[in-house]
Amino acid sequence: MIDVLRSVSAIVTVILVQPAALLEPINFAVTMDAANRRVVVLLIMVRLRAVKHSAKLRLGMVLHFLIRGRVQGVGFRWFVHREAAELGLSGWVRNTESGEVEAVASGDAKELAELRKSLRKGSRGSRVDAVIEHELAESEAEGLGPFHIEGAW
Fold first, then answer.
1. Residue 36 annotated to the active site
2. Parts of the chain belonging to CATH 3.30.70.100
3. Of 9, 95, 111, 124, which cross-links 107 as Cys (Cβ 3.0–4.6 Å)?
């Protein structure tokens, strides 16, 4: 039991030492082994988010994307949000009145290139006809927070 508690203590210490924004709890379970009268940690996993080079830590590139095609009403904004958040990018995504999807993302060139690739591929059920991209001034990153969907409810 002492070894298990030391392991749990070490895991908790690691979690507490890391900045909270970098940690994402995935799943954990603790149970009691009645036969041996000890606590057993079944599963505890913490994944570091990919914000190692995000705009919060230092300014990076800022890109504006306009995505044309069948991109509204098919979950495209949620797809962009998931992809950008997994890459640790800052910014936002929203629908436009003209039927397109617009996004602003900030981060390292490598992560932005991955996002660009995902935007061109599109989500299931969408059809991307064009991705128009403009680079913005690095100072635009200062006002961006964690990647989010604008205008969602």
1. no
2. 61-149
3. 111
